[in-house]
Amino acid sequence: MRAIDYLTWTVTIIITFVVLVLIGGGLEPDPIGPQGRAILRLYRFVFVSGMIVAALFMGSLFWIALKFWDRSQPIEIE
């Protein structure tokens, strides 16, 4: 792969991550006590970790679909 491929792949993953965080964030309750704060810390860690994994998978899927799309085929709708 060329350097431009790595660059576009990285940008695609970053954009996907930002979109996923914007769509899925902000639904966490305010913690009441110390146990709630500990649970919220764990929740945020799992949430961000899951978004990173999802962004890697979906961003790579988007990048592969666009990179290897056969543009020479005419679009036919029957």
The number of distinct β-strands equals 0
Strand content: under 5%
**Multimerization state:** single chain
What's the alpha carbon Rg, rounded to whole Å? 19 Å
Uncertain stretches of 5 or more adjacent residues: none
Helical percentage: over 70%
Give the overall average pLDDT: 86
- Main pleated-sheet profile: none
Structural class: mainly alpha
Helix-strand topology string? HH
Shape: elongated
- What distance separates the N and C termini? 37 Å
How large is the count of helical segments? Answer: 2
Count of domains? 1
Could you explain the architecture of this structure?
The chain is built from 2 helices and no strands. The model has no long low-confidence stretch (mean pLDDT 86). It is mainly alpha-helical and 78 residues long. The chain has helices at residues 3-24, 34-67. The protein has one domain.
Topology:
Blueprint lengths: L2 H22 L9 H34 L11
Helix pairs in contact: 1-2
Summarize the structure.
The protein is mostly helical. 72% of the residues lie in helices and 0% in strands.
List keywords for this structure.
78 residues; mainly alpha
